[in-house]
Amino acid sequence: MREIFKIIKEHFILLLGTGLFTYGLFSFKSDYYEGVIFHSLYEKYSPSSTITCPIATYYYYDSTDLILLTVGVILIAIGLIKIRKKKDKN
């Protein structure tokens, strides 16, 4: 029974690390630079009637996402090392 608990713990660490890494990898943020401004026909009546087209979109990770990525990689490495040690012992 104790051996089964160790196996479950090793795989849980690996699964948790994989989940955190995947969540951190795909939770990036995006924003864009405003580019060309097209004036509409009704600009006389409404000063806010301009249309801007985004010229460039950029993606970035904030500090929380980077921490999740780092913790995920660390947990994956710990899980793989524990499983490898167990296989080498047998």
Plain-language structure description:
The protein is α+β, with helices and mostly antiparallel strands and 90 residues long. The protein has one domain. 58% of the residues lie in helices and 24% in strands. It is built from two helices and two strands, in the order H-E-E-H. The chain has a two-stranded antiparallel ribbon with strand order 1-2. Helix 1 packs antiparallel against helix 2. The longest helix is centred in the last third of the chain and has 27 residues, at 63-89. The radius of gyration is 25 Å and the shape is rod-shaped. The mean pLDDT is 81.
Any idea what the radius of gyration is?
25 Å
Largest sheet: 2 strands, antiparallel
Shape: rod-shaped
Please estimate the helix content. 55-70%
Number of domains: 1
Distance between the termini: 18 Å
Number of H/I helices:
2
- Class by alpha and beta content: alpha+beta
Series of secondary-structure elements, N-terminal to C-terminal: HEEH
Which stretches of 5+ consecutive residues score pLDDT under 50?
Answer: none
Q: Tell me the fraction of residues in β-strands, as a range.
A: 15-25%
Mean pLDDT: 81
Describe the strand arrangement of the main beta sheet, using strand numbers. 1-2
Per DSSP E runs of 2 or more residues, the count of β-strands stands at: 2
Keywords: Membrane, Transmembrane, Transmembrane helix
